[in-house]
Amino acid sequence: MDNTVERVNALSIAGFRGIIRIHKTIVDGFKGINIFVGRNNSGKSTLLEALYLLVSRNSISDILGRFPLGYVVKRRGWFGLGSLKGIIHNRFNKATLSAKINKTSIDTEIQLSREDTIKCTISKDGKPFTRIMVEFHQNGDHSIISSKKLTGLKANVVFIDWNIMRSYGEPEDVYSLLLESGGSEAEEYVVKTLKGIYRDLRGFKPLKSNNKWVLYAVLTDYSIPFYLLGDGLRAAFTYLALLGSVKKGIVLAEEPELHQHRSSMEVVAEAIIKSNTDHRNQIFLSTHSIELIDIILDKADKYGLEDDLAIFRVSLKNGVLHYRKYSYSEALESRRELELDLRG
Fold it and tell me: Within a 10 A sphere around the Cβ of 262, how many other Cβ atoms?
């Protein structure tokens, strides 16, 4: 069994999406829990996408079975083959991503070799070890037309955005994912976390109804079809199942506050913290919610994680990404400043 715990220590970007370069070259000083904040179009999502591609390395899929490069190209919307140009800044002919992961330097170089084809070269400690050519079709489908040392192993990373939340719209699909990825331990993690708010919850079971298997929530005195539960519990259940799919890896979360009520936001924040403490995952999330930040700060204090949390306030000026890093104590002192920025 591989006991390696993934940890990203530093990140550099040049010519990727809207980022020409990072001021002072790199973003570093990452902790176990890292929160990116900033106004719209400040580069938060681009940071998450760069991390996703770098951590995936030469794997053909992430933990959910998605081809990382294909997902990044299409996740913001598919507008035909012109969408490929959006990956590389218009001043560059290639995008270069670099990260220090554990003690290894990983570099990913992305080029358009034709209007429908992306060439991706991945290097480890300065030596190329994987080359991939991916052809995209007008309808958005893609084909890997050549590869060198592309592994079939799934990368130990999950990228949770609203696209993936929608794709697991059926509760039965979410429950299947939960058991397939983490077994009974992952199910116990989800139920235990949800019980912090929904105290009567005892678990989930598929039961047959009208000749069809339907997921039920098992409560203390009765069971109820999952689809009759409140929106907050349903959204939290899906989020927790996705968080539970990774251990000793990397969790990337884009605006987890979307479509969450206050009570379910509490649950999601608790699950994010537990993903770090119990599953030993490194967390990177972006948010526009000062309320979510307040909840996470409170829970970091509760679980003694003050020294393992950092907030990065980012801004994009003429294509150059600037950032300021806040420790836990600095974030508490600068809360008003952060709130004004999030509202901008």
Answer: 10
